[in-house]
Design brief:
Blueprint (H helix, E strand, L loop, with lengths): L1 H24 L3 E10 L4 E6 L12 E5 L2 H13 L17 E6 L27 E6 L1
Antiparallel strand pairs: 1-2, 1-4, 2-3, 4-5
Amino acid sequence: MVEQASQQKKWYKTFHNMLNSINYDLDCNYHAKVIKYDKTHHTADIQPLNNFSDGSKKAQILDVPVSKCCYQLDEWLMTVKDKFNGAIPTPIMHAGAVVVVTVMDHDMDDWDGTTKEYTPSSGRQHDINDSIIVGVI
């Protein structure tokens, strides 16, 4: 009976470690700092704020699409700035801003940014390279 309980404990530990490993490699949402923001194309280069478990930094993610809700107010304020004597607040979406980023379920390489349907070019899923900025904190 003791041996059976020991084996069950080993199986549980092995299964638990496997699940932790899968979850650790699964990207869903994270927060990041905007390193560079392209106002024309609405893309940003970002640095994830969470490090790997050994303390090393994650690589920058380049040309991440920015959701319209993150920049639309900034663009409107620029059109009415004369009514405020040029005294408008710092843009919400800017280099140095902390953003919330979500990771898409599938490869976005062939998505053209429109409502047109597309077929992913690979089986890649929940990869940090398929990120979209959805909010500014």
